[in-house]
Amino acid sequence: MASISMGQGLLVAGLLFAIGLIGVLARRNIIFILLSLEVMANAAGMAFVVAGYRWGQADGQIIFLLILTMAAAEVSVGLALALQLYRRFKTLDVDAASRMRG
Amino acid sequence: MLHLLFLVPLLPLAGFVLLTALSGRLSRAQAATIGVGSVGLSALVAVPVGFSFVISPPSGDAFTQTLWTWIDVAGFKPQIAFYLDSLSVIMIMVVTVVGFLIHLYSADYMREEEEGYGRFFAYMNLFVASMLTLVLADNLVLLYLGWEGVGICSYLLIGFWYNDPANGRAARKAFIVTRVGDTAMLVGLLLLFTHLGTLQIQPLMQRASEQWVVGSSITMAAAGLIMGGALGKSAQLPLQVWLPDAMAGPTPTSALIHAATMVTAGVYLIARTHVLFEMAPVIQTTVAAVGAGTLVLAGFTALTQRDIKRCLAYSTISQIGYMFLAVGVGAWSAAIFHFMTHAFFKALLFMGAGTIILGLHHEQDMFKMGGLRRQAPLVFWTFLAGSVSLAALPLVTAGFYSKDAILAGAWASDAGGRWLWAAGLAGALLTSLYTFRMVFLTFFGEVRTPFHLKVGIRLWLPLVALAFLAIVGGFTDLPQTLGNQPWLSDFLHTSLPATEELATGTVLNLQIVAALVSLGGIALAYLFFMRSPQLVESVVRTPVGKALHQFWFAGWGFDWLYDRLLVRPFVWVARANRNDVFDQIYAFIAWTARIANGILSDTQTGKLRWYAAGVAFGGIVAVAIVVLI
């Protein structure tokens, strides 16, 4: 198996992170925002895996497991919020929930 | 006996507390019982205490009762302590006895009051308690507490009928004008404390005489500042303007506060700190000159008044002028003697006038009175007793003896004694003139307004008692020409310095002159206001007479002068500075904060993605800082 250089791995991770961020900022549908957040979390996880691979250490994969757990928890909260949003505003548009305007 | 002294101010204070705490829950009879009873009990304690002091004087001719330490801070340790010497014995006896009679009178006089009946007695009791604290105080801090206490009660009582804005204005005027004097006095007290380290009166006087030089600038400053306080409280030139307006209060108030007790507090203060004044001869002479000037000025003004109460008010200013003249020339006991007789006859005159006003349905204009001699004989005879005492009718009245002692003291004084004596004599002529003008206009001639009043016991008893005192009160101090029994002077000499004795022949001559002047004034009043009123009319109608009449009627234009000199400039500055200049600085700070708040609150859009963008932007900036720097 051809080895992957760390620069390439981090580049992919960075690209994934940027895509996720753009998704969070550009999308109005809360489901897609949650998906984009998952992408960002996985981008970070990938950076850890690449780094662990580079140094031959298991730490990177351990952190990746941690990130998976965190993402699962985050999704459960995020979906609960999505349900509440829909129940109150009959829409999935996050911009509808802007009553905290200063 | 003497250890009951603390009850004397405590009882009226307790009366005040009770009346205030139970206000609205007391019937009128209960309120009157508490109000009159507390002062009556206080008098019942004060008189035996006074007599036991006279019969068996304590060692050192003074008795101090220390109740507790009031404040104890860094050497400043005023105590709640009462100091009884011959001066304060006379003061507490007069204040409680006259005060009790006036309270008794008020119980009937104020019967038309609905909600204010209990309130009136509460104020009056608080006043008496404050006045007694003032005269019994062992240190100047406690004295100042009483001093301000009578000031606030005066304000409350002048503005008692607060529904009329004019009464409120009169009350504020009295408070503000006396405040000028009080401020001077407070500065004087601070000066004394910083230089002599104590405010306890007796040690203070001793230290002053040991450490200060006669006529030095510090002594003059201290005496001058204390004089300022006395001038304000006692309504002397140039702070006399508040007293005539103070007649807005109920008549018993005028009798108690603005005739018999509070206004003489200034005289008491000067007598109490006499050591300072004797060490500052210039200030003492100023006191005498102010007194002489005030007594003549106020005499002229009293001559032109139409309102019977205002006439009595100016007469009060004039009589306190006599007391100032007396303390100014060093006739200390004469001043206290005149305080005592004045308390008797002026309280009597005010209550007599109050009865008339009540009987004529609140008519105060003397030119609408007349012929009351037959309609209200009791009021006439008692009022006459007070009038002859005020006019110093020779031999038989108290006023004669006390005024005579003052005139003799003025004659004997080194500093311009003859002039002061002449002013006092001119004042005596004016006094008998305006007094009998009042008597003739009110009680003689034709009936102009019918008198409807059944004079009950609570009204006539105080009148008769005070009429008795106004006649016999003078026999407590008989001069050397008439019996030579100066009991009161001898008694007072344990606390006040003795007056220079004149030769008997001189005294006799002075007395004859004073007696003639007094009689002459009465005769002139008879001529002008009974026999031929057209004489006065023709004088008043000439241009000069008219101008003078108006000038005197307005109290020598002092109100006008102060209005132009002080009130209007102040109002003008206040109006010019309506948008406070200094306030603008703070307004600018507030404006900046509000603008910044507006800008920042615009960033709070409530949109989740906007916040996320903010977080991302912040993250980028943070990374950029780490990477680039």
What's the arrangement of secondary structure elements?
The complex is a heterodimer of chains A (102) and B (629).
Chain A: H1 6-26, H2 30-55, H3 59-89
Helix pairs in contact in A: 1-2, 2-3
Chain B: H1 7-21, H2 28-55, E1 63-69, E2 79-84, H3 86-109, H4 116-136, H5 140-158, H6 165-196, H7 201-211, H8 217-233, H9 242-245, H10 251-260, H11 265-272, H12 274-279, H13 281-304, H14 308-328, H15 332-359, H16 372-375, H17 377-390, H18 398-412, H19 417-443, H20 457-472, H21 487-492, H22 504-531, H23 533-541, H24 543-553, H25 558-576, H26 581-603, H27 608-628
Antiparallel strand pairs in B: 1-2
Largest interface: A-B, 13 and 13 residues
How many individual helices of chain B? 27
Helicity level of chain B: over 70%
Please estimate the helix content of chain A.
over 70%
> What is the makeup of the main sheet of chain A?
none
Structural classification of chain B:
mainly alpha
Uncertain stretches of 5 or more adjacent residues of chain B: none
Strand content of chain B: under 5%
Q: Helices and strands of chain A, in N-to-C order?
A: HHH
Descriptive notes:
- The complex is a heterodimer of chains A (102) and B (629).
- Chain A starts with 5 loop residues before the first helix and ends in a 13-residue tail after the last helix.
- Chain A has 102 residues and is mostly helical.
- In chain A, 76% of the residues lie in helices and 0% in strands.
- Chain B is an all-alpha fold and 629 residues long.
- The termini of chain B are far apart.
- Chain B contains 27 helices and two strands.
- In chain B, helix 1 (7-21) packs antiparallel against helix 2 (28-55), helix 1 runs antiparallel to helix 4 and helix 14 (308-328) crosses helix 18 (398-412).
- Chain B has a two-stranded antiparallel ribbon.
- The A-B interface holds A 21, 24-25, 28, 33, 94-95, 97-102 and B 600-609, 612-613, 616.
